[in-house]
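# step 3/5: fold
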Amino acid sequence: MGYLLFQITLFAYVLATGGYVVYFWSQRNDVRTTARGILIGAGVLHTLYLIVRYIEAGHTPLTNHHEAASFFAWSVTWGYLSFHWRYNVRNFGSFVSPLITGLMLIATFSSREIIPLPPALKSAWLPVHASIAIMANGFLALAFCGGIMYLLQERELKNKRFGLFYTRLPSLESLDQLNSHCLAIGFPLLTLGIITGSVWAKQAWGAYWQWDPKETWSLITWFLYAALLHQRFTVGWRGRRAAIMAIVGFSAALFTLWGVTFLLEGLHSYVG
């Protein structure tokens, strides 16, 4: 049942992405409304899938690549929808929905095998730390998409060639505010994820910090975003530099989530 539900959810995400792409070209409000409705439906189905996966596995479904990518996609979906209900950012869904579908495809091609948890993962900290860390990445992903949109819009304005993006993307000010709002949620969650991970490490391995590769890259990612926020509030960093830093920071977050697991061995290698 879980596999079928996942496939239906993936199909719904693909439909929503197609709808947003059509809306980006046509700018028809009825197409946007339909795409949004399908995305909400996909988010609901995805929530049901996570519940079913939890029942099938007997533990929080955040312990392998399939589950991490799936939960990542779920976090981006509901993070985007929460922003959409509060802020009106034109064509934001056209950039976010392909990312969601890409994450779901990663989950599709990753092993769905349910294996027994290692002793270190048999802890109440698993759902707390893992869910907070991935939800942080979800909001940082939204800042990444906003950064891409900002650079595309700025390029057309700078070159004074008002083409495809100029009439479809929000103003640079709106995109910069979007970046700030996403970071205002993503960075505290990232910080909380590191703190809960340290507490869990103390419980599991007897030390709060062991400079494991994933711990190290988490700290590097944190410093990148801390530097961005510091520059925004003290020096007044806005616009292009903030957009580029949001993209660089998200790249570091992705490397922390997956690159470290594949390329560097450490205490977190069992996640694979």
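# step 4/5: annotate
The helical segments are 2-26, 29-57, 65-86, 92-108, 125-159, 172-205, 213-235, 239-263.
# step 5/5: archive (pending)
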